[in-house]
What does this fold into?
Amino acid sequence: MDPTVCKVTEARAKVACTEVHKVFPEAECKVEYDREGRGVIKFIVDRCLVDMEFVETQESWHHPRRLKEYENIIGSKCRVVVLIPEPHALKARLRMLDLNMKYLFYYQVYAYDAEGRTTHISTVHQMGGHDSSRDKVRGYA
It folds into this structure.
């Protein structure tokens, strides 16, 4: 098991609990790891899934059926949050733009780095190198 995936999954589960419990105070949180080594966080209310979150590995997010998996979950009116290793986050965000035609508000994408820090990716602009605040942090501005 990738220790970074574990670290990100545990940290995200704590944040997600706060977010989900604002809307569903009775939601039960379950954290598990699947055969691909992904962290999976589920929130269930009365045996209904209301939120599902995936911490993808370097390899797992490449799976050809991954986008369809997210779409099926979103289609059941369940929010999906995907955390993807930083080097692959832009490509994953671009792939997920196809979901905007139907499900604009039901998913979120985050990048995570080797230290386990996460960044919400709300627009492609954020990952494209044009955000001056990121440039200042990197020492480019």
Q: What stands out?
A: Residues 38 and 57 are 6 Å apart (CA to CA). Strands lie at 28-33, 39-45, 48-55, 79-85, 107-112, 118-120.
